[in-house]
Amino acid sequence: MKRTVKGTKTVVAALAVALAVTGCAGGTNNAGNESASNQGDATTESPVLTNPKDFKFDPPVNVSTGIRWSAQGENEFKEGETIEDNFHTRWMRDSMGINLSFDFVVPNLEDYETKLRLMMAGNQKLPDVFTSKVEMVSDMISADKIQPLDEYIDQYLSDNLKAIYEKYPDVLYPVTRDGKIYGLPNLYAMDEGTVMWVREDWLQNLNLEAPTTIDELTEVLRAFTEDDPDGNNQDDTLGMAVSLKEGPYNWMSTADGLVGAFGNHMPSKYIWEYWNPDENGELVYNAIQPSVKQFLAQMRDWMSKGYIDPEAGIKDAGKASEIAASGQAGIIFGPPWMDGYPLGGVEGFKAYPLPSGPDGQQARAEKTMVRDYLIFNKDFKNVDAIFGYINKIYAAYFGEEDPHFDESLRHGWMEGYDYVTHEGKVYRSNFAEHGVPSEKWPKPGDDTVTYGLTLPFLNGIVPFQSDAAFQKFLDNPDAEPANMAEISVSKAKPRMLEAGLVRISQNENTIVNYFNGPPTKTMVSKGELLIKLMTESYLKIIYGNEPIDYFDTFVQEWKKNGGDEITKEVNEWYKSVTQ
């Protein structure tokens, strides 16, 4: 299935209306938080309008937020810096006149959502600006806790960012209510699509070619299992490492590229994924479609012959990958970044395109495009300041042609943190190798350390923007990055760049989820039960505990135990946003 956007014409038209609303909102009158009301008269005094590239609020504006964050290692910050006070928060204050404070910092999503819900229940003041998953955004709209953003979008948001929303209008569906937009989406780079990792050295040892079809894959799996591909005269290899504990689709050690060989439907461990239209335009739940039965039959065959890990049904993605990382399995499916983890210590793996099925079908799952949404307390007045900041962050990804591009972000987030300059050149790693004096390294004495950045609001990422950079840096590792997206790609090793090009070559062969609204009523009450029914039924078939036709029994059980009601609710939502 080629990637398509549902209801494109309808939503683009709606967005165009929203962006064309006349009048201004939230303009700052240079008196801190004493700003014009959200529906007040237009003010052209906001520095975001008068000087979008180098605006600064004077006196500064105060902005509070809440964030989920936990340290990932001892080198998270330079000594003396914290998530609340670091080079980026100081840059916001000194460069733009935005004083950022943190109402709370919690380590995970569960604690974060609990904190916000307790604040709502106690009628406490919410942070001025914060991110939230779609379900909570919906609840906050209903509770009148957050403000619509249409006029701010029209007045302050960069044209490049507006164009992204017009290109992918479905990202605004979940936060649109009664024609008004209540949130800005935090987007993913969409650079994690599944490729097939194969032990190239094993292929050479057995005089085999990389498989291009399911039939060819079957023969390679057999040979990798039975023909001593590592040449150690021991029966200690498997064809494929895969995780089936939570269904076929996973963040790595996945089987989505195999499901896609049989049809355009993808089972997921979440009840809200995957739904896509049938021939009548009605959304159908992918996990119960006939093509999945074919996939299960194929996995059953491989399992019975010992070609795949016999513990696939009890291993999560990380545990399943250990078999490939230890040199025991010759094939594993997952994203290009697996070059670093978990395959970094195995030289033999190479990325190949996904195999095609009996009818030439070839597809992978496409993950959701939205991580969460940035929303604004209904009483917060300085929305223009945050929009100006967001424009700068995104301009760093769009590059110098963007009118909001800040020259200080040309080479990275901050010199001495994620890059250094020496003798007129920019370096982002291997400082000693390039002759950079130790005192200029981000962490003097250790040239392996650089300091990244946890952005408090939107991450600046543009879907698929980094794709063009994979070939650029494969051709010339020393090429100069043109924007933040290219800076990220420039750090990749050749094998990952090659894997990225394989992924890019199959970007059109994707299975997309068409439901991105909040979980429906029956999803909340019955979803966990139905997902358990799916995973248990699949594994019974794959392990031979039930016949292949047991899939039909599963489908009937799924429907009568809440599935039919969920299907009705999903289509009611779908019609509400596309008609």
Report on the structure:
The chain is built from 18 helices and 17 strands. The protein has a four-stranded mixed β-sheet. A three-stranded antiparallel β-sheet has the order 3-14-6, with helices on one face. The model is unreliable at 1-14 and 16-43 (pLDDT under 50). Helix 14 (467-475) packs across helix 16 and helix 17 runs antiparallel to helix 18 (550-578). The protein has three domains: 8-186 and 373-398, D-Maltodextrin-Binding Protein, domain 2 (3-Layer(aba) Sandwich), CATH 3.40.190.10; 195-365 and 519-578, D-Maltodextrin-Binding Protein, domain 2, CATH 3.40.190.10; 416-506, no CATH class. By secondary structure, it is of the alpha+beta class. It has helices at 8-19, 47-50, 87-96, 109-121, 134-142, 150-156, 159-167, 200-205, 214-226, 256-259, 290-304, 317-325, 383-398, 467-475, 484-490, 494-505, 521-542, 550-578; strands at residues 61-68, 98-106, 129-132, 176-177, 180-181, 184-187, 195-199, 238-240, 275-277, 283-285, 329-334, 349-352, 364-365, 370-376, 420-422, 425-427, 510-511.
